[in-house]
Amino acid sequence: MILAFFALSGLTVASALLVFVARNLLHALAFLVLSFLGMAGLFLTLSADFIGVAQVLIYAGSISVLMVFAVMLTPLASRNNGSTLYVIPAMLAAGGLASLIGFVAIDTEWDERKGEALGVSDFTTTVAGIGDLLLGRYLLAFEVASVLLLFALLGAIVLVQERRRAGEEA
Amino acid sequence: MPPIPAIEDLSITLAHYLGLAGTVFAIGTVIALSKRNAVAVLMGVELMLNAVNLTVLAFSRFSAAFEEGGSAPLEGHVFVVFVLTVAAAEAAVALAMAVLVYRRRETVDLDRFNLMRG
Amino acid sequence: MSEQPMRPATPMLRQIAEHRSLLQRFMGVSKEWKGFALLLLGGLGLSNLAIAYVVIDGRLDGQWYDIRDLGNVTQHLRSWMQDEGFHPAVPYLTTALLGALGILSVVGGWLLIGSWVERRVLAKFQIRQGPNRTGPFGLFQPIADAVKLMQKEVVIPRVADKFLYYAPPVIIFIPAILGWGPVPWAGKMSFLDLNVGVLYTIAISSLGVLGVFLAGWSSNNHYSLLGAMRTVAMMVSYEIPISLALLAVVLLTGSMQLSTIVAWQANYNAWLIFLLPFAAFTFLFASTAEINRTPNDIGEAESEIVAGFYTEYSGMKAGLFMGVELGNAILVGAMMATFFLGGYTMFGLETWIPGYLILAAKIGAVYFLFVWLRGTLPRFRLDQLMGYAWKFLIPLSVVQVLLVAVEASIFARWETPALFPLAAFALLNLGLTVEMVRRWAHALGYAPEVAQQQPVMATAIGGLKAAQKMRGG
After folding, report:
1. Where are chain B's structural domains?
2. pLDDT of B83 above 60
3. What does the pLDDT look like over C165-175, one tens digit per residue?
4. Which fold has domain B14-112?
């Protein structure tokens, strides 16, 4: 558990940093996928099996491919991963944010489970529970999310569709 | 799957996960704020969403507030499912917009999008 | 025509004329060998009787020497280690390493045998001999090939993106191995019996896409990029029919755990291919697209774009791509066997024969089907393939998922012996599938009644037998 946590968090953070540092956009994409996979592993250490696998499926499998297509459909745009002038203020802001979160995380007395209690509360499976909640208490949100996905799909298609001008032949 | 051995003293606590999530979130913020390419900005946003997911899952795993009451700890998981959905939708629309902007301006660099400048 | 039968004109026809059937070959051997074979068979029968006595007696169940299920061995090993008082990580790590070693050796061995089998069988389809020089029956050909590939000079294009060029052979190899994790080889013999196993297989198979794309892009070659874009588009499209087909399986069996799906099929003595014929077909066809095999191998169509996304790879890097292709074929065979063909069970035969052998036989059958398809079918065009996925497979799969959902809820509520509803579902699904496919194909504009689809050339020539007859055979 300890080893897994530190190895996976090292992988995640290092590849997230490499996304920032990499000079080439596609190198950054490769490191981003690595970071997503490390994050999926971290989810698994939290005994979230369904979410971990869904993370691999959605982020590493689909969103990255979407980004690949976006890169490929913009062939004349620059492929470098340069930063704007905002990089210094952004780093300052992010550093402040990270230290604030870290301070709160360490300083607060969390009402958390430790040791024995944590071992007892291991989920054997989360799928059935998630399914019950999704089609029970959160049914409305579930439906809204599916409608959102549908509209995002339609919106993306409509946005990227190449409209023919009036004069042009098909 | 063989059962994972129970180690008596789990020294990984909620604070570890929160600190890690904060770090990843900060890196995502830097990327989202400072990158020039629209796709790279989207990468930063995805990293931030991932960090938030990690926080939610860590809370649902560690917090003692969910001790009694059956499936209550799984509410965090349900929340993450919605975040994943929204992230997928957002990525699709954002990348479609990037492609659209490219068609008009032949670039996806965000500091060249000065259409609103008079 | 003269009285004397004509000598076959071509080497091919000579080969056909000289071909002897198995029975003729058996009758040809000498008497001593026949006696020896009879003795061997008798001995085998006697020893089988002894084994049967032990199995029926039940004194074998759960012992460490019960090799019908190698899970017993590891279980005993683990409990022994726990009794000895090792650190709790030791038995866990040992069994994990043993399982990983087992999977790797099975996959590696099959890679060697599989390439030989494919070439030999394909040669039979094309009336050739296939590799027959290296070792008996050319059995050492794969080893010779591997040695040759490893010795070859690795040529790297000067303009290639070095980092992304080196990564893909590794990236693409990882999911091909990881996919074997949840496959149950026997009751206790599965490395990673996840309770989200189905989702895991889909997720793992979607990881390969990125490797393919990076390989094509980093080579900096038009053919590579074309092949990569074709493959990525195809893989992304065909992931949806695969997911929908597996969703039907999950709905009916009520579980995403692969071992539970197999147990369901064993419990009701009903393979899912009978209950869900369309899902099985969808899975098989979409898998051939996903793993780039003929008839769906436009991504690496050698007559159009050299070798597709791995055109620029040489030596063992290209060998890895080819190995992954073959490994994916047998992985799909294992998935097909597990989901639709009853996995390691065979209507009670698994009490007698080790389950992993049954599964291996089923994998071999599916693999043979793949080779058969490769030897028979021409390659589809890209637009045909995409149209087939989006216009045909996906709508019909959605309809099928709805149908199966209704059936599953009926099955859960109806209090009869399971035989009646299952038989009814099987008949209903088969009939509906045929009708649905016919009508939908008609609506899409495919009308075999109107346009004659019989291949003109083949009918006119009449095939090989007719040619032989014309030569005076």
Report:
1. 14-112
2. yes
3. 888 888 888 88
4. Helix Hairpins (1.10.287)
Interface touch C92/B1, C-beta < 8 Å: no
Alpha-carbon distance C135 to nearest alpha carbon in chain A (angstroms)? 43
Q: Give the residue from B1, B10, B77 with the most C CB atoms within 10 Å of its CB, the best one to mutate.
A: B1
Reading the block at residue C60, the tokens are 């074998």
* Distance separating alpha carbons of residues A52 and A130, to the nearest angstrom: 13
CB < 8 Å to A68, chain C? 210, 213, 232
In this structure, the answer to whether residues A19 and A85 fall within a common structural domain is yes
C333: in domain:
yes
**What sign results for the dihedral spanned by CA atoms A82, A88, A93, A97?**
positive
Report if residue C430 sits inside a domain.
yes
Residues C356 and C186 sit within 8 Å (Cβ to Cβ):
yes
In a domain, C231, yes or no: yes
Number of domains in chain C: 1
* End-to-end CA gap in chain C: 11
pLDDT higher than 90, residue A93 = no
Say if residue A28 is in the same domain as residue A97: yes
* Angstrom distance (rounded) from CA C306 to CA C298: 11
Look at residue C41 in the predicted model and tell me its pLDDT: 92
User: Smallest Cα–Cα separation from C339: which of C293, C394, C292, C279?
Assistant: C279
Work out the average pLDDT over C96-106: 86
Predicted confidence (pLDDT) at residue C178 exceeds the cutoff of 50: yes
Residue C247: per-residue pLDDT: 92
* Chain C positions in Cβ-Cβ contact with residue A33 (cut-off 8 Å): 210
pTM (2 d.p.) = 0.83
Expressed as residue numbers, the domain containing C245 is 152-447
Cβ neighbours for C447, distance < 8 A, ≥ 6 positions apart: none
Residues of B in contact with C95 (CB under 8 A): 2
**Which residue type does A80 have?**
N
- Summarised one tens digit per residue, pLDDT across range C413-449 is 887 777 788 888 888 888 888 888 888 888 887 766 6
Provide the domain limits for residue A150: 123-164
For residue C295, whether the previous peptide bond is cis, meaning omega lies within 30 degrees of 0, is: yes
- SS3 of A114, please? coil
Residues of C within 8 A of A57 (CB-CB) are 199, 202-203, 206
Which of A76-80, B59-63, C106-110 is most confident? C106-110
Considering only the beta carbons, identify the residue of A94, A121, A146 that sits closest to B26. Answer: A94
Centre a 10 Å sphere on the Cβ of residue A2 and count the other Cβ atoms it contains.
13
Q: From chain C, pick out residues whose CB is under 8 angstroms from the CB of B6.
A: 88
What pLDDT was estimated at residue B2? 45
3 state DSSP class of A80: strand
Q: What is the CATH number of the domain that holds A69?
A: 1.20.120.1200
DSSP letter for each residue of A64-75: HHHHHHHHHT-T
What average pLDDT score do residues B93-97 get?
Answer: 86
C200 touches chain A (CB under 8 A): yes
DSSP type of residue A62: I
CA C211 to CA B47: how far, in whole Å?
A: 21
Contact C325, C291 (CB under 8 A): yes
Residue A112, domain member (yes or no): no
Tokens found for residue A73 = 């459909």
pLDDT tens profile C8-19: 667 777 777 777
- Please check whether residue C246 touches A, CB under 8 A: no
Q: What kind and span of H or E run contains A32?
A: helix A25-45
Which chains border A (3 or more CB–CB pairs < 8 Å)? B, C
Mark yes or no for CB contact C163/A27 under 8 Å: yes
Q: Are residues A26 and A92 in the same domain?
A: yes
